[in-house]
Amino acid sequence: MSRDHVQSAEPPAPGSTVPGRARPDDRCAYGSAETPFLELLARGASAEAYEQPVLLARAQGLPAERIAALEQSRRLALRVRSDLEGRRRREAELSALFETAHDLAGLRDLDAVLQAIVQRARSLLGTDVAYLSLNDPARGDTYMRVTEGSVAARFQQLRLGMGEGLGGLVAQTARPYVTDDYFRDDRFEHTLSIDTGVRDEGLVAILGVPLMLGHTVIGVLFAADRRARVFEREQVALVGSFAALAAAAIDTANLLAETRSALADLERAHEIIQDRSGVIERASEVHDRLAELVLRGGGVHDVAAAVSRVLDGTVEFTEAATAPAQALEASRAEGHAVRHGRDWIAAVAAGDELLGALVLRGHPGLDPVDQRTLERAAMVTSLLLLARRSAAEAEQRVRGELLDHLLDARDRDPRLLRERAARLHADLDATHAVLSARLEGAAADADEEEDARRRLWAAAAHLAATRHGLASARDGGTVLLLPLDPGDTATDLARRTARHLGAAVHEPVTVGASAPVEHLTARPDTVAAAYAEARRCLDALRVLGRPGDGAAAEDFGFLGLLLAGERDITGFVDRTLGPVVAYDERRGTELLRTLDAYFACGMSPARTKDDLHVHVNTVAQRLERVGRLLGEDWQSPARALEIQLALRLHRFSAPADPSGPGRS
C-alpha cells in the first residue's frame, strides 16, 4: 500500500465486537470519521488517496452509518482541498503580478523583464509554451521577441505579416482570442509560413492577449498547449494583466531610450537631463514606494498618499460612479491619464471593468513622466482592488457554505461548526435571528434579474461580514444569520436590514425575520425552522402590500401565531396581556377576570357589573387601571380583537384559579 493510503486500525481481537455489528452510536470504537481525511489534508495527499478510508471501511464490513459518515467527511475534505488549492493558485498569481510590478519599478533590462513575464505566465497557466510578439513598424510585420518552452527553431524565428494568424486577429480587434484547435479555426487568416511553424511546434490550443499602449496594439502575449484545452475566464484575465505589465515595461524602456537619444543628439542634452532627472527620480521613488506598498499589503488610499507626496499634489481614489464620466471613459479607452479642468483623471480598470479612478487635484500642468507615474499608480491600484475582491469573495463563499451546512446538514459536528464560525469571527452560541430577504423591483429580463440577485447577495454578504454573521443565496433571495445586540428585537433588526440592503442595491428589499434563536448547533433543525418562519413573515409582508419593509412574527399580532414556526402562544399572551397578569399576581386583583367579563358583556360596564356582582364604579376603576397598563388604545377594534384572543388562549392554556372578591 502506498504512502497516500490511509492506515486503518488493527482488526479486532478475538472476542471483541465483530465489524459490521457495531452499535451505531459506538463511534469511539472506530475513531472520528474526519480523522483520516484531516491527516490527508495535513500532508497534502493526492485526491485518489481520499477513497481509501471508505474502501477500507467497506472491506472491514463496518456499519452503514460509519461508511456514510466517512463518505460525507470525504466529500467535505475534498471540497476543502479544492478550496485550498484554489487559494494557493490565486496567491501564486497575485504574487507573480506583484513581483512583475516590482521588476517594472526597478526596470534595468527590458529583455529580462519580458522574459520573466513570459516565464511566469507559462508557469501559472501550466501551458507547454508561452511567447510574446512585437510589431515592427519599419518592416510592416510582427516578430517573435521572447519564447519560453519552444523547441522548434522555425517557430522561434517566425515573422508574420500584419493581420495574419491568430495574432493578427488579436491586433485587429484589440481583444483577447482563444482557439482550442488552431488548424480547425477559420476566424483568422491561415498562411503557409505560420501554419508550418505552429505545426513544427505541435501547438493545438492558443490564447492571445493584446499589448496596448493607449489604443494602439504594439504586440501580442500568447499562451499555448500541444493538446486541446479550454482557457478559463480567470486565466484570460491573468494573461491580460501580464500583457499590461509587458506593455508598461516596453513603454518605460521607450522613454529611457528617448531620453538617451536626446542626450546624444542635442546640444542642450545636459540641461534637458537635469530637468528630467528630478522627474525620473520621483517616478522611480513612487515605483519603489508602490512596490513596497504592494508587498506589505497596503490599500488604495496608501497608494494615493504615496503618489501625492511624489507629485506634490493631492491624489484621491474615487469610485467610478462619482468620477467625471466622460473623462473617466476617455482615460479607460486611451489607457492614459486625461486632463479634466484643473484636474487629471487616471482610470483604474481591470479589462473592460471600471473599478474607480485616481484624481490629481488642482495640478493642470503635468510633466509626461509624472503623467505616466499617475498611470502606473492607477495600474497598481487595480491590482490591489482585484486582490481585495478575490479575498472578500473567498470569505463570502466560506460564510455561505457554513450557513448552508447549518440549514441543511443533519449529521454535522457542533464542535467543528463552532470552530469554523470562530475563524469567521462569528459566535454560534449567541442569540441570533434568521432573516429572509428578497428584491421587489421588476426586472426587464432574466439577465437583469440575475444581476440584481447577485448585487443583493453581495450587499448581504458584506453586511454579514461587518456584523459577524453569515449570509447565503437561497430560494431566489438571500438568507442571513445575524446576532441580536442587547436590547435589540427581531423586528428592529429586520427593518434596519431592509433599509440597509435597499440602499445598497437601489431597489426595495423586503425582509422577514424569525423570532430570536439560541444554541444554533444544539438541534439539527433549529436554523432551518427559523428560516421557514422568516420566509412566512416575508410572504405575509408581500401579501399585505408592504414591500420594502421588514418585520418579525411578533409584529403581526395574532397573525404571528400563524406565521411562527413553533406557535408561541405563551409569548403572544405575554406580549398582549402580560402587564395585566403581572398586576393581578402582585396585587391579588381581578383585572383579568373583569376584562374577560367586559368583552363577554359586549363592552357594557352596566352588564359587566351585574355579571361580576360589583358596583359599576368598581368596574370603571378596574377598566381605568387596565387602560393605564395596556395603553389608551386598548379598546380600538384591532387591539380589542387581539386582547380577546389572548384572553381566550390564556383561559384555555391555564387551569381556573377561583378566588374571592378582588381589590381595584
From TrEMBL:
It comes from the Bacteria. It holds the Pfam family GAF. The chain crosses the membrane at residues 202-224, 236-257. SMART domains: GAF. Residues 109-260 form the GAF domain. Keywords: Membrane, Transmembrane, Transmembrane helix. Residues 1-29 are annotated as: Disordered. InterPro entries: CdaR-like_regulators, CdaR_GGDEF, GAF, GAF-like_dom_sf, PucR_C-HTH_dom, PucR_C-HTH_sf. Gene3D superfamilies: 3.30.450.40, PucR C-terminal helix-turn-helix domain. PANTHER family: CARBOHYDRATE DIACID REGULATOR, DNA-BINDING TRANSCRIPTIONAL ACTIVATOR ADER. Belongs to the CdaR family. This is Helix-turn-helix domain-containing protein. It comes from Streptomyces cathayae.
